[in-house]
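# step 3/5: fold
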Amino acid sequence: MDGQYLSHSTSYAFGSEEWPEFYDLWVESLFGPGPSEDASVFRSALERYAAGHNSGQPINVVDIGTGTGRVIKDLWQEPGGALENVAFWGLDNAQAMLDRAKSTFDALEASRRTDPAHHGQSSSLVRLPPTWIQAPAADFASSLPNLAGNADLIVFAVGGVGHLTADDEVERFLEQVRRALRPPGSYEPARAIISVLHEMIPEKNPDLAVEREQSNPEHSSDNVTDKPDSIIPSRDHLGITYVKLPTVSRWSSHDVRTDSFSITIIKDTEAGRYQEGEVLKKKEMAWSLRVFDEKAWNDAVKQAGLRIEEVKEGEIQRWYFLVPSGD
């Protein structure tokens, strides 16, 4: 059980059955259809490893917190996606997200196979379809004993590590990373690429201190409004619309911010007006994020038997490249 389920139980957004399709549509409305800024970062790391890999064994790419499989689908579809002998593992602790990851991936692959533009290309990807596994981030290697010491690239995208809010959860996750990565000794070391959102890094987001100081649990109704901030028609279910109310953020005394909101699922009228439609379901949702403590992070990385090889900055996130320390 991870910290999000301990804190939010059935209200944890990523564990809700109502969340997966809306999540995909919502992210697309915010950032466009992709590929996301991290796609080139992960692809470059994969190609770099593949260039020095000649063991004949599959290159194991493990996507922690895969959600609806966005990272794996980006790597699969982009130019060079037919890298030979790559096995993708998509791990998430929410089965509803994994179910959508598999169904949307299968649909994309079916479309690729029938696309004349792909005729004559390598069929290696068909031979190695992704494996989708339900597992918490802090125990992922224990859930996959066959991957212990065999992972070549581990990614934890779009600030997923910030969702590890339980005591010692980050430390346990890093220990699992060290356990999963292939030991030193090859030409190109196995790596983990961990993303931290700028919004949770104090030096990148000075407003964090102001937000924490102004947060007052006694005024939980402040800034609450009934005016939606997102109205998104479903693509999977004709005549269905998702309506999201604005997010309300509150802080605990442990540098953890909880974001709460509601999503209403509405059956539109025949005229297509969701405002007059039938409310099928309303779901209260939440998740929590921890403020990034760089010193604690560096200490935890070292304690886990890893070292920071490189740090890269993107538009909305920072990536830490971790390799086994070799000691």
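# step 4/5: annotate
Residues 122-126 have pLDDT under 50 and may be disordered.
# step 5/5: archive (pending)
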